Amino acid sequence: MRRDCFIRVIDNKKLISINDNLSMKSFVNVKLGRKSNEVYQSLKKQIILAELPAGQQLVELEVAKGMNCSQSTVREALLRLQEDGLIVRQGYRGTVVSSVSIAEGQQALDIRARIESSAAQFSIRNFSEQRIAELSDLVAQMVRAAERGDEYALFDLDQVFHCAVYAQANLPALMPILERCSLCSHRYKISESGTRRTLEETALRHWSIVEAIKSGDATKLERVLLHHVSSVIGDVAQADSAVTPELRMTASMETVFNRIQKEDAHLPNPMLIPLEQAHANFNQINARWNQVDDTQFQIDYFSVPCPTRQMPAVRIARKKDAREGTLLYLHGGGWVFGSINTHLGAMAKLAELTGLTVVGIDYGLAPQAPFPAGLNDACWAWRWLRATPQSPRLNGPWVVSGDSSGANLALAMMLDLRNAGEPLPDAALLFYGVYSADHQTTSHKQCGGGQFGLSTEKMAWYRNHYLSGHRQNSSDPRVSPVLAQLEGLPPIFMNAAGLDCLRDDSVLLAQRLSAAGVPHQFKQIEGVTHGFMQMSSELPEALAAYVDAATFISTALPTRP
Fold first, then answer.
1. Does pTM top 0.85 for this prediction?
2. 31-97 CATH fold
3. Stretch 336-359: mean pLDDT, rounded?
4. What does the DSSP assignment read for 470-481?
5. Architecture of the 293-555 domain
6. Closest Cα to residue 196, out of 151, 233, 146?
7. Among the options 231, 404, 405, 480, which is catalytic?
8. Annotated catalytic, 444?
């Protein structure tokens, strides 16, 4: 049977060329003329966005006057809307916008999840490179729609994407059900989710589906689709269990974690005490990880001249067998805490295993130095170090690294340098970073209660200080790098802790790097908590993570003659 090409068009722009068996119009019985379709599309948009609320009466004559058309034209459009389940006829009340109850919305999501995931075993072998490219383009268009704040365009593209994926299974009998459930579930999602998930995050979640398709693994695609649809809103336990390992510490992590909990039990919640005291406690907590053998390392303190101050810095290198190259390290601490001294042990371990000279800086901390002050300090230090290598005895190749909020700053710094057309690092090492402002991810839901240390509440507190209360800055790509265009970045090594509310930030970033064609390696270390690499003196998993990073550096950096 011949399968003609169908062109999906929104606002007179071509979105994607797809088979007619995956068109959203393929199974519609009501055929509309041009004007009837305009009326249909206008009313559909208003219903989906809840601009026409449930129970709103639609009077043919009034709609006809408003749309400057005949009643028969409106009647055709209403028949189509009725077929979609968006309106109902209620006797004397006439035609009204249908309602979507919680039960109906959840049921629609459940049916979608079952239909889409079960089709994976039939569809996975049918995805050509061209089809995958088209799906990737659709996701890119979703991201652009999200950046514009165009929720309806995002909804429409989402429908086309999911139907395009399902259509590759060649099971057309269920397509009308999928389309109907898709409309219902989207109405429910928009009405119930509010601002709990950003449009950008909604768009970016589709990259995981594209990556699963690229893998050619039907089981993986099935799990990803099940999780994607089921976790839109509501209870996601079933889906999570299929894709997330058991949330249990390794034996070594549990031993260290329990001891730390006992040692620090007397310390008050840092969010409830003056910042000066909280800083002192943070320094005390991290002092146990920063015993560096000065017989093995050369440690020099110096200053980076900034426009408003002398920024403290430290240079640490192996005394024997150091290699050519410099690594700029940006410490973690939620943009609020931390210093070169709280992370001296981490920098020494990087110097030991990579052989590079490691430089750390005391960038400005919030709330005294809110965004983008710390980022600007990092960029300033990077430029000064490269321009004045003889002062602290530094040379290339050049690497940037950071943990947690420091990983965020390292990535944001690379974006700023790229956008300015300046030299980028030769490679980057990013450890369990914060890359998104979304606190509704699965990892936040699973690990954000504080049972593994870092909590969602504390992350919100950190971010509020960093942004100085200006939440609109959360959408700045330098604050939430998963929202940035990532093309042109150098090779990146990144990892995530399995028991960390920030885990999915790294998962999402890895997907975005793949989509942007950035060379990278991503490792998720199960059974460990946020900040685990600070504990390399006692935790085997931390030492292994440093070895992984050093191995990456050995292959990523350019060789010197």
1. no
2. Arc Repressor Mutant, subunit A (1.10.10)
3. 96
4. -GGGGGSTTTSG
5. 3-Layer(aba) Sandwich (3.40)
6. 233
7. 404
8. no
